[in-house]
Every structure is written in C-alpha cells, then in structure tokens.
Amino acid sequence: MPEYNEEMPLKIIIQQLMDDYQLSSKLRQMRIQKIWTRIVGQYAASQTEEITFKNGRLAVTLKSAALRNELTFASSKIVKNINKLLGEEAVEDIRFF
C-alpha cells in the first residue's frame, strides 16, 4: 500500500484507495447497470440477466439469442453511448452471452 501524507489532496487519496481495493471496476459496473435501460431500451434491459465489468470489458448475459445477435451488431454504438453517459472512456469492448 502506498504511503499517505497530510499534504496529499483527498481526491488522490480516495483514488489510490479505490485502486488498491479494486473498487473502481465495481463502481463502474454499478453505474453501467444503472444506465443500462437508457442505453438499450426497456425490452432489452428486461431480457438482461447479468452485467459484469472488468479491465475495460463489459460482459452482458441475455435471455434471448435473437436479442444477443441484434445487440452484437450494435455493440460499437452501445460502447460509445455508455462511455458518453459515464463521462469517461471506461468500456473498451462489450460481449454478449
């Protein structure tokens, strides 16, 4: 764990703690889950079983094979919209299962 001193800004300390405990990825995953319906619509969101995020890769498990195929074709647009709503380039790739 890195050394902390009284002169470090609180923002940097919090970011280091989040990195040390790997909380950044979990926080992004929760934010993505929160905006998922806005990104893909109500029907696709209702067919979503699980969303996980790790190392820039988003994995989405869907109930419908047809929907999985449709969203795969739109994956680059979905990634772009997620990153836009997150306000950062967090998602590099998305896979549907």
Protein architecture, described:
- The chain is of the alpha+beta class.
- It has helices at residues 10-20, 23-40, 42-46, 65-73, 75-86, and strands at 48-54, 57-62, 93-96.
- The chain has a three-stranded mixed beta sheet.
- Helix 2 crosses helix 5 (75-86).
- The longest helix is centred in the N-terminal third of the chain and has 18 residues, at 23-40.
- The mean pLDDT is 90.
Rg from alpha-carbon coordinates: 16 Å
Largest sheet: 3 strands, mixed
Parts with pLDDT < 50 across at least 5 consecutive residues: none
Give the domain tally: 1
* Sequence of secondary-structure elements: HHHEEHHE
For the residues shown, what is the average pLDDT? 90
Q: How is the topology of this model organized?
A:
Blueprint: H1 10-20, H2 23-40, H3 42-46, E1 48-54, E2 57-62, H4 65-73, H5 75-86, E3 93-96
Parallel strand pairs: 2-3
Antiparallel strand pairs: 1-2
Helix pairs in contact: 2-5
